[in-house]
Design brief:
The protein is mostly helical. The chain has one domain: Four Helix Bundle (Hemerythrin (Met), subunit A), CATH 1.20.120. The chain has 5 helices and no strands. Helix 2 packs antiparallel against helix 5, helix 3 packs antiparallel against helix 4 and helix 4 packs antiparallel against helix 5. It is elongated. The termini are far apart. The structure holds fe (ii) ion (2 copies).
């Protein structure tokens, strides 16, 4: 059976800051491309291309978000940036090992995005969204 991937839901995932919500949505879309490619049995070349795209989006997004946090003096910046680093390291690790041979790659990538969505996005970034909104950003 095909996995449906992640479904972006503005009221659930949105943090009320347009630029960040848009970037999060793009990351979710790219993750869904990765999931579909795994299910379609795509070649490692295609997988690598998609994963490189995901790493690029994540890196750009994390950089953007950290600059915003710093600009607006968000007190949770340090811990949040540490989480970003952990997520990037995980992605790098996937790229070094996962898609050539791991039979559990679908499960691993799903666990990764679930963590990212539930722990990082829904917890830390709701707080960030509220903080930025209190500073007049939308
Ligand atoms: Fe984010
Ligand atoms: Fe973040």
């Amino acid at each position: 059976m095909k996995h449906a991937g992640l479904i972006w839901n503005e009221s659930q995932h949105g943090i009320g800051i347009t630029s960040l919500d848009e970037q999060h949505r793009q990351i979710v879309e790219q993750v869904n491309r990765v999931i579909s490619a795994i299910e379609d049995g795509a070649s490692s070349e295609v997988m690598h291309e998609l994963m490189d795209g995901l790493v690029l989006l994540a890196r750009q997004h994390f950089g953007f978000e950290e600059r915003l946090m710093s600009e607006y003096g968000f007190p949770g910046l340090e811990g949040h940036a540490r989480e970003h680093l952990g997520l990037l390291q995980k992605l790098d690790m996937f790229n070094e090992t996962l898609f050539f041979s791991d039979p559990h790659r679908l499960k691993l990538i799903l666990a990764f995005v679930t963590d990212w969505a539930e722990l990082h996005l829904l917890k830390g970034e709701k707080v960030l969204g509220e903080y930025l909104a209190s500073k007049g950003l939308s």
